[in-house]
Design goal:
The protein has a domain at about 1-5 and about 30-90. Strands 1-2-3 form a three-stranded antiparallel sheet. The protein is mainly β. It starts with a helix and ends in a 12-residue tail after the last strand. It has one helix and three strands. It comes from Erythrocercus mccallii. Keywords: Signal. This is ATG2B protein.
Length: about 100
């Protein structure tokens, strides 16, 4: 779980240039994401599998900072469901069925 906040920081590509005689404070970065009535359609490329994840509310909180907790990821899902299907070829598919 601690790798995800580091991946997010790498995605943002934030870098500080060193300044002689200045010691920057330890950064604390936090990301909060709150979604209502959301879904995720996931299709792993090497597998003939289709996954639909739905949630009434989804809250994602991640952060990085100084010790003792250098990275944390928290997922809160309310009224969530996972639907799986082995059919991915052509046409529309009713994943709830």
């Amino acid at each position: 779980t601690s790798g995800v906040p580091l991946q997010l920081l790498a995605l943002l590509a934030l870098e500080d240039e060193p300044v002689l005689g200045y010691t920057a404070p330890t950064p604390l970065t936090q990301l909060h994401l709150h979604l209502q009535r959301c879904s995720l359609d996931y299709r792993p490329p090497p597998l003939p599998l289709r996954v639909l994840v739905t949630a009434e509310t989804l809250s994602v909180t991640c952060g990085s900072g100084p010790e003792p907790h250098p990275g944390a990821l928290r997922l809160l899902v309310d009224d969530g469901s996972v639907f799986l299907s082995e059919r991915c070829g052509g046409g529309t598919l009713d994943l709830q069925r």
